[in-house]
Design goal:
About 45% of the residues lie in helices and about 20% in strands. It is of the alpha/beta class and about 200 residues long.
Length: about 200
């Protein structure tokens, strides 16, 4: 299966696809991503110099907490958001307690003007139909609940039907997926996959 990779703004370092790539898809407001997955990616990178390791910051929820601004603040100042902040505070940390040095790129997000035009065009379709005012409003409300969140999601996340974060994708230079998993696996399991 081929990865539909939609890269947006590079936040840290530089990303170039190579022969073997391990991409960690994460959200800033994901305690497991920050406490386990990012450090694991660093360790994997240190032990596998021939594998291009990088992180993709995405959003499928909490769009005000998972974006380019919060990603930059996390990487540059160690700033944490809501759930991540709570998690690390319980461990006695007010900031991210480590520096993450690997490349980080944002998922590609639909520009807000495009989202507005998309909403408007979908809603206008129903204004021209001979439907009751109540039914039109119900249809618009339903579309707003479904369309708006989907239009705000990162394209790589959405187009590959990912389950959540952290998601790991191991792929080649042709974007063919060699292996992928959601959540956490132990280092031995990951290393066995990378050694194939």
């Amino acid at each position: 299966m081929q990865l539909d990779l939609q890269l947006g703004k590079v936040v840290q370092g530089s990303v170039a696809i190579s022969e073997r790539n391990l991409m960690l898809v994460f959200q800033v407001n994901c305690p497991g991503c920050l406490s386990r997955a990012l450090p694991m990616l660093t360790k994997i990178s240190e032990e596998n110099k021939s594998i291009n390791c990088f992180a993709l910051s995405t959003a499928f929820e909490n769009f005000n907490l998972n974006n380019v601004k919060t990603t930059k603040a996390l990487l540059e100042q160690g700033d944490l958001t809501l759930h991540s902040k709570r998690h690390f505070a319980q461990l006695g940390h007010q900031k991210l307690p480590y520096n993450f040095e690997l490349p980080v790129v944002m998922d590609w997000f639909m520009p807000s003007q495009t989202i507005s035009k998309l909403e408007e065009s979908v809603f206008n379709v129903f204004d021209n139909e001979r439907l009751s005012k109540t039914l039109k409003q119900n249809i618009k409300n339903h579309l707003a609940q479904r369309l708006v969140p989907m239009s705000l999601m990162g394209r790589t996340f959405l187009n590959n039907d990912l389950q959540g974060t952290p998601t790991w994708i191991y792929f080649d230079e042709d974007l063919e997926i060699i292996g992928s998993w959601f959540g956490h696996k132990d280092l031995e399991w990951i290393q066995a996959l990378l050694d194939k």
